[in-house]
What we know:
Structural class: mainly alpha
Shape: globular
Radius of gyration: 16 Å
Largest sheet: none
Strand content: under 5%
Number of domains: 1
Number of helices: 8
Order of helices and strands: HHHHHHHH
Amino acid sequence: MGRTKSAGAAMAALAMLVAAVPAQADTISSAEKLRRLDIMLMVTGLRCRTTSDDFQGDYQDFEAHHLAELNAASRQLRAELARQFGARGADNALDRISVAMANAYGGGHPWLGCHELKGAARDLAAAQGAEPLLAAADAMLSGDAPMQDIVPQLASGDETAPVLVASDAALTSADRPQLAMGGLPRR
């Protein structure tokens, strides 16, 4: 019974998140959304592994079940970057973007805790196709900076420039409900 309530609560939380999709989400390609979702779940899963809401198994199920979608997104994202930075620059840009994405979640998700993330990972592992993943990405990643904000320095050829990372370090607990509704606080 407790597991059913937990799964129901996770589904309700995910449904609320999906309902609060910001307009900015359309500026990020589907490939980038799937890559960000995968990295966010991986990094937060590692962070939550020592808690009672360890979801490493759910993340592994998610990855295994959606391997085709995740690999296709990676190939598409690399192709997008190749058009922008050339074939050689694409690999470097993809590495830098992936590191920036991972670093953005090194301190945890801005508004979701391990319990909510565990439920989301379990639900996403059971989802069919890319559409539910894209909807979840729109909802769960709404505070992330788009790829073009992370690596604009690569266009100039400066491969030593620091990677810009979206961060919630300046956010207070009062900002988090606003973020959950898809908006960033104005400073």
